[in-house]
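Section 5.1 Outputs to date
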Amino acid sequence: MAASKEAYGKLWCELLSSDKYRDAENYKENTSAHHLSILSPCSYSPCQNGGTCIPIYKYTSYQCLCEPGFMGEFCEKAITSCKELYDFNRFNVSELVTLRLDSKSVTILCHMGDFGCGNGGWTPVMKIDGKKSTFHYNSPYWSNKIEYKLPGGESGFDSQETKLSSYWNTSFSKICLVMKIGQHLGFTVINKQADSLYSLIADGQYRAISLGRETWKNLIGSDASLQLNCNREGFNTADVNPIDVFHSEARIGIVANQENDCKSCDSRIGFGTGGYFDDAVTCGNVAKIEGDNGDRHTPAMGYILVQ
């Protein structure tokens, strides 16, 4: 209600259709009148992080409309992963969302539901074009905290490369690996708990996993080829005592050899790769010298997501 004294000393009152809490965007204060209302549940500003309080007078209650990147009854929780958002809302529709990473708002495409790696919310981390050198094994992007082409994080399994701050900010218990060759999409999941992908890769230390040769080959499809020996798989697969520095290596993947050691591997399947025989393929499959399915030089688009 608004009330004011007219020029002749008479009071006038006007019943307003709303108040500053229910219609904050259209509220305009009238300095010549006094505004009176019943005590609002929003009077104590319960909504945090810039959230808007909407009073529900009928029940002496309120609802907080959160700013992008926040959730919770009071907008008190920053959304730092797609898994958190999925666990909160339980919806299976992939959509653009705002995450709070490094205290900044980052727009990404959250992959929701089972698209090939299992149910839940999956946070994108990197997209690698195997024909480009951006994410070669020796690229500094694997050891630094520098983003690359953020718009690539707003789209799905396309040809845009990206590295998001989720690389060093997002903890997980699962890694989804996807390779795309033509129209073929291959998926596999690594069950691995870590504070971030950066914590597994940046120091260059080898960390073993055991998916098996066939699991890696399934990422490529029926044309995949690997030599039969070594089969060193995991993170940072380069051998610490190689015969020379030119043999196959992968930041995430498997390397193999025709000899019964890992010092001169000539074949690989993985992400962030490099080395002999085809140093230009940075994601996909390279095989030479007695590969179990012949020689291969197969670049792929690679996608890394975590949950």
